[in-house]
């Protein structure tokens, strides 16, 4: 299949030369960019799309999410709470999770992400209630394949229940043997390490307060044996730091060093409560910056510029939909930019640098060099933006406009792996209304069931 994006007004490549191209074409053949240039001539078998007055960029790469939370937004019992009480309250609803809910929660998240310019996403699924199937990651992978999203599934885990000093209740944790066995199963069955892979697996013990030290060690041994990446939450709140000091006698970064979770194959979510020395020790690792979640849960502000200056790979992510409460990548970029300037003032990241974190930066955090850049031979993951609206009138720099202006976050077109999956802000692969109706019913039934059983 071939596709010509004709006469694109501006192409932001994020290549090594930092090229920004005016009035050029992009020719896509199969799943990759064949060429970029002016007045590319093609035969009649190539579909041509007029992109006059549109801006093209690589798709956003979302590096931290919890898809199932799409069904648990705006629950009254957990509003206006910080992380630990928020989690304790939500575990009581999440314990009813089932395969159908995981599947539709993923479809909701994928739909939101694709419509707001994201072409690659990971998910951190760590919740496996005792009374349901353990093959919940399989449901997410099925949803990704149906909708057309490039997907990095992480086999999350919780092994440290409340009876053993952890935060989660015992009915949502698993034994370490079960976790490690399923981790290896998923890697063997689904992990595709080829170029332009649509499906990868990583291992992701949830957090220092919900897994044992031994599980962190055994997970990194398995991951490195199998050649997959590692992910976890780190230094999100002061409560987490206090927990680690009380449980292990170490702060979170010290604990990661002890269990050998430092390196280019590791990325962490949040990384807010770290000092200058700890930041230096994270050099080479990746970080998922989750601005909306950090603001809503009052967790703090990630030291984004300091991390970049220290050689840490920085990306932008939406986090779970129960703490955001959306999967809107375009809006997350805006908030990342504003939070960075709130913290660093005039020394903050400019619009180009923030957008680079959300595209090429995310690719680098996930260990990929085939996405996140628009150039010959890279994956055809391309998003087209229409800035021809009164909300952008008078803006003299389209990159600044993309980050700070606008009344909508719905993109003109999203192309993943050479296929159009969003057109004019609407999903092109599945029926959005059907997803909405089914997901809403599942969500209402789950929450209603928990509330009724409390009475």
Write the layout of secondary structure elements.
Layout: E1 2-12, E2 20-29, E3 32-37, E4 47-50, E5 54-58, E6 60-62, H1 83-94, H2 99-115, E7 118-125, H3 136-147, E8 150-157, H4 176-190, E9 199-205, H5 213-226, E10 229-234, H6 238-248, H7 252-258, E11 266-270, H8 276-281, E12 286-289, H9 291-296, H10 304-309, E13 313-316, H11 329-344, H12 351-365, E14 382-386, H13 398-404, E15 413-416, E16 419-423, E17 426-427, H14 432-454
Parallel strand pairs: 1-4, 1-5, 6-7, 7-8, 8-9, 9-10, 10-11, 11-12, 12-13
Antiparallel strand pairs: 1-2, 2-3, 5-14, 14-15, 15-16, 16-17
Helix pairs in contact: 2-3, 2-14, 4-5, 11-12, 12-13
InterPro entries: Amidohydro-rel, Metal-dep_hydrolase_composite, Metal_Hydrolase, MTA/SAH_deaminase
Domain Amidohydrolase-related: 56-421
Keywords: Hydrolase
